[in-house]
Write a structure and sequence with these properties.
The protein is an all-alpha fold. Helix content is 67%, strand content 0%.
Length: 149
């Protein structure tokens, strides 16, 4: 690791080697030790390209972000699982809604469709009534004008 040795400190609260965010304490110690050193790696005896401190820090930062995303996803999945298990337990206990809830929802939807049909019929009858009244007014007006002559 290019002569960098991580310093692992125990968390005072838990007594573990992790910080408060769930990351190993060694990861928090890397930037502090790396910033005091040159950004160029020391020559090593191995063959092949050596990683620079900057690229290692970028990898570490990317790993942290990935860990945060994964932790958020785990929390989301835990909430979903908890919800589903709670609903299942509620149904199984008999305290929840009755089993014919779907049937009642279907009946409600059928009644709503029936109500819409009745309203359409009522609108048609209102239009027919308005047309009949208009025709009666015209007929009465015509009869009144012919009776005066």
């Amino acid at each position: 690791m290019n002569g960098i040795t991580p310093v692992i400190r125990a968390d005072r609260r838990s007594g573990s080697g992790f910080d408060g965010n769930g990351f190993p304490a060694a990861q928090r110690a890397y930037p502090a030790t790396c910033s005091s050193r040159s950004t160029h790696p020391r020559p090593s005896l191995r063959l092949g390209p050596a990683a620079s401190i900057a690229s290692l820090q970028a990898d570490l930062l990317n790993a942290r972000h990935r860990a945060e995303r994964l932790a958020a996803r785990v929390r989301q999945l835990e909430r979903k699982l908890s919800t589903l298990l709670g609903e299942h337990a509620w149904r199984e206990s008999g305290l929840g809604a009755s089993d014919d809830l779907d049937e009642l929802k279907q009946q409600n939807a059928d009644l709503e469709r029936y109500m819409i049909d009745l309203r359409l019929q009522l609108d048609e009858r209102d239009q027919d009534l308005a047309a009949a009244r208009s025709g009666n007014r015209e007929l009465m007006a015509h009869l009144n004008t012919t009776a005066r002559r």
